[in-house]
Amino acid sequence: MSISIDHERCDFCGTCVAVCPVDAIELSESFLRIDEDTCSLCYACVEICPLGILEVQE
Amino acid sequence: MNTQYDVIVVGGGPAGSMTARYAAEGGASVLMLEKDREIGMPVRCAEGISEKALGTLVEIRERWIAQVIHRARLVAPDGTAVDSNTEGAGFILHRKLFDADLAAMASEAGADVLTKAYVHGLLTEDGIVTGVRYRHLGREHRVSSNVVVGADGVESRVGRWAGMDTRTTPEDMETCVQMTLTNISIDPDCLVFYFGRHIAPGGYVWIFPKGIRTANVGLGISGLYSRSKKPLAYLQEFVDKMFPKAAVLCTVAGGVPSMPPMRDIVRDGLMLVGDAAHQSNPMSGGGIANAMIAGRIAGKVAAVAVREGDVSSKKLSAYTREWHRTEGKNNERFYRIKKAVYSFSDEDLNRTARMLMEMPEEERTVVQVFKKALYKHPKLVIEAVKALR
């Protein structure tokens, strides 16, 4: 399992970064990356995203 | 650009620029690093602030003001619209111009300002923060300092890197989308708020005018409710219904930490300000004034700490205490009120609106709104009166 990012629809707002319990998300001006080794697959980021651009990949 | 500063500020929003300005005015050498290409952009903000709050923080410039506000309308789930006059004027700002001017004031005070500078780590020695690592135009840089100030917003990681727990819990995150709409029919001097489970659960819709036919129209919902339906879907429904002919000038997403105030916002050589320190009003989500107040205190305290050669957390905690005394205590009250208000059913909200409609319009002050809404919670009414004083 992993989390996919729709880079074309992401607004780089950082709401996902703030709720991540393990600090696995990196955000610069127009770049978002989830570190798969750190990610605990809690899906807080998927659930909080205002736009719904993060998705769980089975 | 030097490789050593007294104070490095990470983030160039209102919190960062005020910190940089007051640290520089206090005699410190200051570097402010902004990750985006332009100070003030993108504008992830409804841009509202009261004239009173702004006037105590900075000399107000005409060019910042998109619209002057005199009235507010609260709309209950059943459509009951309660109108009132605001106590004192409000402004809807041009944040792009406002933020740029605050950064210019920091620069005039002597701070160095760098954009497109992405801070991605801290330098530490024996567990004490001694600077930052950042990328600028494809090159890696290290710059050392006596104090690092994390003014890096909702997405803050500076505190986390120093071992602080700055995570926002999903339940206390307001997850938001806003569209700047034009070609719409509005009352230009009136803020409008819509409440209701089906409109914005655990939050509200705002319409903040920016001229005669233009407004910031947005909403926030609690992260408790954003799993099954996204803020963007709620807003699209609202806009399609209310403003079907609007042109959308801008769409932005964003999050507002609506947490109880953090007790712990300093470490040895480190301070957090603004959304990075969860300093927005947890009830309204308003954060411009709070961030500026915190930045002013933090900048002054940092300058004194540098001058006296003591940047220990004990020394820097003068900032924590002053912040808590001036704003943090009120945020604690607003947090308790938020918890009560956001547990209201639609029928509770409708009843509150009906009670307010029975009062003459000129008596509908903010305090009265809270009194009617919280009539089952007399202790919270006292908290509201204190917080609004």
Structure report:
The complex is a heterodimer of chains A (58) and B (389). Chain A has helices at residues 15-19, 44-48; strands at 2-5, 25-28, 31-34, 54-57. With 58 residues, chain A is of the alpha+beta class. Chain A has a single domain (2-57), classed as 2-Layer Sandwich (Alpha-Beta Plaits). Chain A starts with a strand and ends with a strand. Chain B is of the alpha/beta class. Chain B has 3 domains: 4-44 and 96-167 and 261-338, FAD/NAD(P)-binding domain (3-Layer(bba) Sandwich); 70-87 and 170-257, D-Amino Acid Oxidase, subunit A, domain 2 (D-Amino Acid Oxidase, Chain A, domain 2, 2-Layer Sandwich), CATH 3.30.9.10; 340-388, no CATH class. Helix content of chain B is 33%, strand content 30%. The mean pLDDT of chain B is 96. Classes of the chains: A alpha+beta (58), B alpha/beta (389). At the A-B interface, α1, β2 and α2 of A face β10, α5 and β14 of B.
Descriptive keywords:
heterodimer, A: 58 residues, alpha+beta, Alpha-Beta Plaits, two-stranded antiparallel ribbon, B: 389 residues, alpha/beta, FAD/NAD(P)-binding domain, D-Amino Acid Oxidase, Chain A, domain 2, eight-stranded mixed β-sheet, 33% helix, globular
